[in-house]
Amino acid sequence: MTPDQQKSIWSWAFYDWANSAFSTVVMAGFFPLFFKEFYAAGASSTDSTFYLGLINSIASVIVVMISPVLGAIADQLGRRKGLLILFASFGSISTAGLFWVEQGHWIQAACLYIAAVIGFSGGNLFYDALLTLVSPEKDLDRVSALGFALGYLGGGLLFGLNVWMTLHPEAFGLGSSSEAVRIAFILTALWWIGFTTPLMLFVHEPHPPEKKVMNIAKSSLNQLFLTLKKISLLPQTFQFLIAYWLYIDGVDSIVRMALDYGLSIGLNSKDLIRALLITQFIGFPAAILFGRIGEKIGAKHGILIALGVYILVTIFSAFMDAAWQFYLLAVVIGLVQGGVQALSRSVYARMVPPEYTAEFFGFYNMMGKFAAVLGPALIGWVAMMSGSNRIGILSLVILFAAGSYLLWQVDIRKGHQLAKAFQVE
Question: Which of 230-239, 356-365, 384-393 has the highest average model confidence (pLDDT)?
Fold first, then answer.
């Protein structure tokens, strides 16, 4: 591998370091906590859980609607990197806006959060699509895992600083923990856009012949169906997407709703934040390890191992009632979360026709976000209807089990061969 290739890979991977600040500090960490205790102050525990689930679902629906079209436009214009920067900037500005939302104004907070999630998800679409551009085929598992590992480390470092600020605001000249959380939103925005710079400078994307944007826009309304038709011609790729849709629903639901669930069953917010921080730092070496596992035993088997752990974690979480149990779950999730994400991305990358990477990854991201429509909304609805947050969490077992079953039947080697030979008639 040449020095330029290595620079390109590390610059690409550092975008995970950049945007994981949002997924860790905001999405998984302080927004659910601050939403329940500050933005939605006065609402009951089950109502605020329902609101949070609904907010996540609305954001996901929007991403579902725009992802395939954005992917197609990026492929035809050859502007994956430019669109990534655009969406990262939009997400960063929206995140910073949370600083100015006052207590009780949960609708305003929801709108900014939804905008930030759109920026985060759109950026990820183009980031994932650049994987096959920067990485040789034989190194896909390792390079994908490197991105997630740097994401866990970078997000964890900023989150660690933010946790310190909230636990000891006086050490930073701040008046309260609430002020520290609001400052965390500003720091996350700056971190996100600042560490996108290496990708801006050192990842180079070849551009196809110029095409008129208006012509592309006119044809984009049919793009979802055209992409689905292409994927349907690749049966192994199609079945993997269905499996991924099911099991990533559970993964994303745990990421987005874990702190809300812990608060709802009476655990202390400081314990929950510390546990999430543990997950981040364990996730760094674990993601690297899973990249190696993917090379040794096959990426599919690595994902199946992780999903088996998630099933056990979900069952255990429905019955926990002590902080030490939440810490234990944080450690276990940290061992597998990055692995299932990284290996899923590299498996899919192998089964995507090279000339349609952004378009196919648009659909991949759409499936992942469509899953996030169901999970948080389901947990919130069941919690509100039953009056118990413990009951809803068990529904995730069905998603993990069904996803595992379908994944087991996917022939990745055959899917790779079909993708390489793929031609649209």
Answer: 230-239
